[in-house]
Amino acid sequence: MISIQNITKSYGHVTALDGLSLQVEDGALYALVGPNGAGKTTLFRILLGLLYPDRGTVTIDGMEAGADIRRLKRRIGYVPDRIGMYPNLRVSEYMDFFADCYDLSGAKAKRQIQMLLDLVGLRDRQTQYMDTLSRGMQQKLSLARALIHDPKILILDEPIADLDPATRVEFREIIAELADAGKTMLISSRMLTEISELCTDIGILNHGKLVMEGKLHDVLDRVDASNPIIIRIAGNMSSAMQTLKKDAKVRSISIRDQQLLITYTGSPKEESALLRRLIEAGVPVQGFHREKGDLEALFLQLTGAREERRVSYYEAESDFSEG
Questions:
Q1: What distance in Å separates the CA atoms of residue 30 and residue 205, rounded to the nearest whole number?
Q2: Superfamily of domain 2-75+151-222+298-303
Q3: Mind listing the pLDDT tens digit for each residue in 171-224?
Q4: pTM score, two decimals?
Q5: Which tens digits make up the pLDDT trace of 222-250?
Q6: Closest by alpha carbon to 53, among 19, 27, 86?
Q7: Are 321 and 226 spatial neighbours (Cβ–Cβ below 8 Å)?
Q8: CATH topology (fold) of 228-291
């Protein structure tokens, strides 16, 4: 559905995207995660036809991005991190305006608007002026507006940033409902843990490069595989130590309380064989498991997320208008 092949984009001497390639399949919910200045907003500008890459190609639903902007915009819905504010418009007037932009009118437009306001929980706010809505309500309205023309693809830039916990839960539930309906979604975020609860695929972007990508379960497996195996022993550990030291895949052993923590480079099948050898050696094993991975720790390790933004002027997050 979205194919990005080796794209590069520079602003003067600053490279915002550096040979970036990724694929978002039909029906996927792809989370693009990275610190400020990683290149997320530049990529979204290219996908929306607002910028052209210096090199590389972008294809969306079989169309080259930038080739026919009007046709492309009918296939994409875009949600910025902050809604474009029209303080003199009521919620219903705002939705009517964007329905008209997509040539929707009459009963069809009314049905679509009511359905979307129901989806985001704003039906009872139709007569309220936009600037009186809470931050969370404004973000829900932005999502409803992005869906007015029933696009196949949704691009969401930091959709849950700065929302209160209750609204984040509601927003995630709406996104999950859209995923169940078959929408293809590309979501940027700095909130790795929360977005990972929704996504099917994940890519970690840093300095314009994809430093890790894959199906969420594969990424989690890779995170787990880098963590130690914890073996809980009842009684003396000497026989366990002797057995472990004979295995070339055991790279290190440490002791914590009545537990052994081992760095093990073998496969899951080899892990099972190691447990069997421990039991056959008479080791009183009470527990044997690999420590669960920490996505946030992986994110910090891969991105150095506390670093200063290096493209702060050009890579201002979501500073272009919606619509």
A1: 12
A2: P-loop containing nucleotide triphosphate hydrolases (3.40.50.300)
A3: 989 999 999 999 999 999 877 666 777 889 999 888 899 988 888 777 777 666
A4: 0.75
A5: 666 667 899 999 888 888 999 999 999 89
A6: 19
A7: no
A8: Alpha-Beta Plaits (3.30.70)
